Amino acid sequence: MRGAKALSLSAMLAAIVLGGTVFFRLVEGWSWLDSYFFTVVTLSTVGYGSLVPATAAGKIGTTLFIFLGLGVFVAAVQQFGSYAVKKREEHTEWLIGRLGHHPGNPEEDPEAANNPDRPPE
After folding, report:
1. Considering the entire predicted model, what is its pTM?
2. Which domains does the chain have, with CATH numbers?
3. Residue 81: C-alpha distances to residues 48, 51, 67, 78, 104 (Å)
4. Could you read off the pLDDT tens digit of each residue along the chain, which spans 121 residues?
C-alpha cells in the first residue's frame, strides 16, 4: 500500500472517530470515554447496546454517522488487509526465489512430471 493512501485512510478514520466522539459528547452529554466507546462500537458494527442515543438529534446523527463512517471503516480494513496479503505474497515469492525452487520443473517438482497439462519434453 502506498504511504499516501495509508496515511489518508488513517487520517479519515481518525477524523470519523474524533467527529463521532465529539458529536455524542455534545448531543447526548455522555462522557468522553462513553462517546468514544459508542463511536468505535457503532463503526465496527459490534453494537453492544449498553449505550443508546436518547435524543432525536442523537438518533438522526447516529444514522448518518453509520452511513458515512461505516464506508470509511470498511475501506480502511480492506486496504490494510490487502496490504498484509500482498506483503505475505511478496515474502513467499522471495523465499521461493531464495531457495531456488522453480514450480513446474519436473526434476525439482515430481508432481509436475505427472501433470497432463505439462508440454511433452
Report:
1. 0.63
2. 3-113 (1.10.287.70)
3. 25, 30, 22, 5, 30
4. 567 877 888 888 899 999 999 999 999 999 999 999 999 999 888 888 888 999 999 999 999 999 988 888 888 888 888 888 888 898 888 888 888 765 555 555 555 556 666 555 5
